[in-house]
Amino acid sequence: MRKSLKKIDFGFKKVNINKKEELVNNIFNSVSSKYDLMNDLSSLGFHRLWKQELINWIAPQSNQSLLDIAGGTGDIAKLFMKSGGFSADIIDINYNMLINGKSNNPKIRYIVGNCEKLPIKNDTYDRITIAFGLRNITNRQLALNEIYRVLKPGGRFICLEFSLVNDNIIKKLYDLWSFKIIPKLGKIITNNEEAYKYLIESIRMFPDQDELSLMFVKSKFERVKYKNLSQGIASLHSGWKF
Ligand SMILES: C[S@@+](CC[C@H](N)C(=O)[O-])C[C@H]1O[C@@H](n2cnc3c(N)ncnc32)[C@H](O)[C@@H]1O
C-alpha cells in the first residue's frame, strides 16, 4: 500500500507537503515582473510604510550586516543600505524575483536558495529580516531554526507579515478589498487571478500574532515581542539571539 503524504495548507486548499514549494515557486515566477506594481496597488502603497517601520525598528548602523530572507525584489535590503547599513545579502528561492529587483549596489549580494536549509555558516549576520515571506514557506519552524542558527549572538531578527486585524470595521473593509478587488487587480496586471487568490487566502491561514510569537520562542529567540501595523493588517515580530 502506498504511504499517504502529509497535507499542508496552500491558501484554503490542502496539498501534499512535497508540492507546496513548487506551487509557490510557480506563483512567483508568473508574477515576478509585475510584483512591485501589484504590491503598490494591492496595498494602496501601505507596504512601503510597513517596510519603513521594519527598518526603523532595526535602526541600521554602519557596522551591521543584514540577511534578508525571501527577499524577492529587494525592498528591505535597499532600504537597509539607504539607512546606513554596512552590507545586505538577499536570499530567495526564486531567481526571477531576485533578477527583477536587482540593484547595482555592490554591497547588496544575491543568493538563490531555500531558507529551510540556508547555505550559510553559523553566527554570520548582525540582523536578519523576512518580509511577507514566512507564510509562503513549507516548514516555517525549520526556517526559524535556520535563521536563529545563522544570526550572530547579540543579533536581532525581525519578521514583517500579514496578521490578524483587531478592528471589526477595518476587518470588513479589508476582507472586501482582499477577496473582491485584489484577485481582479491580479488578473488585470499579471493575468494570474489564482496567484492573488492564493496570496490572500494564505494570509488568512497564517498564525496570528501570539501563535507566531510562540514559534519564535520555540526556535530559541529571546525578548520576543510584536507590534501591530494598521490595526493588525500586518505586524512586526522581533526576537534576539543571545
Ligand atoms: C510575497 S514575496 C516577498 C518579497 C519581499 N520580501 C517583499 O517584501 O516584497 C515572498 C517571497 O518568498 C520567496 N520564498 C518562498 N519560499 C521560499 C523559501 N523556501 N526560501 C526562500 N525564499 C522563499 C518567494 O520566492 C518570494 O520571492
Description:
The structure is a single chain. This protein is of the alpha/beta class. It has one domain: Rossmann fold (3-Layer(aba) Sandwich). It is built from nine helices and nine strands. It has a seven-stranded mixed beta sheet, with helices on both faces. Helix 4 links the parallel strand 3 and strand 4. Helix 2 packs antiparallel against helix 7, helix 3 packs across helix 4 and helix 7 runs antiparallel to helix 8. The longest helix is centred in the C-terminal third of the chain and has 23 residues. The radius of gyration is 17 Å and the shape is globular. The mean pLDDT is 96. Bound molecules: S-adenosylmethionine (SAM). S-adenosylmethionine binds next to helix 1 and strand 4.
Largest sheet: 7 strands, mixed
The CATH class turns out to be: Alpha Beta
The CATH architecture comes to 3-Layer(aba) Sandwich
In spatial order, strands of the major sheet run 5-4-3-6-7-9-8
Question: What characteristic shape results from the CA principal axes?
Answer: globular
Kindly provide the radius of gyration, computed on alpha-carbon positions and rounded to a whole number of angstroms. 17 Å
Order of helices and strands: EEHHHEHEHEEHEHHHEE
Helix-strand layout with pairing:
Blueprint: E1 7-10, E2 13-16, H1 20-31, H2 35-42, H3 46-58, E3 65-69, H4 75-82, E4 87-92, H5 95-100, E5 108-112, E6 125-131, H6 140-150, E7 151-162, H7 168-190, H8 193-205, H9 209-218, E8 222-229, E9 234-240
The structure holds S-adenosylmethionine.
